Amino acid sequence: MVLSILVLYLPAPGIRGSGNGMLWYVGSHGFSWSSSVTTGLHAYHLHFNFSGILPNYYYHRAYGLQLRCLQE
User: Fold this and answer.
1) How many Cα atoms are found within 13 Å in the side-chain-facing hemisphere of 5?
2) In sequence order, which residues have a C-beta less than 8 Å from that of residue 60 and are 6 or more positions away?
3) For residues 11 and 5, what is the distance between their CA atoms, to the nearest angstrom?
4) CA atoms in the 13 A half-sphere facing the CB of 68
């Protein structure tokens, strides 16, 4: 029996602060915006780090999260 392990590598660019523009969590956390808005000021995002994936969290839309084109 042959065991195949697939590994997914995702960039971990961190997050840019909404007030001062400083970068946080670079190299250890990744954040990607969702297309779903929770309110006028907040939107869902995907948050991942070494521990796992944390879906369905939301941030103020002024934060600088990476954008990922998933489908054209």
Assistant:
1) 2
2) 18, 41, 42
3) 19
4) 14
pTM of the entire structure?
A: 0.69
Of 58, 31, 32, 30, the residue nearest 43 (C-alpha): 58
* Nearest-5° Cα angle at 57, 18 to 62: 20
Helix (H) or strand (E) holding 49: strand 42-49
What tokens does 25 get? 């969590």
Chain centroid to Cα 42, Å, comes to 14
**68 band by pLDDT with thresholds 50, 70 and 90:** low
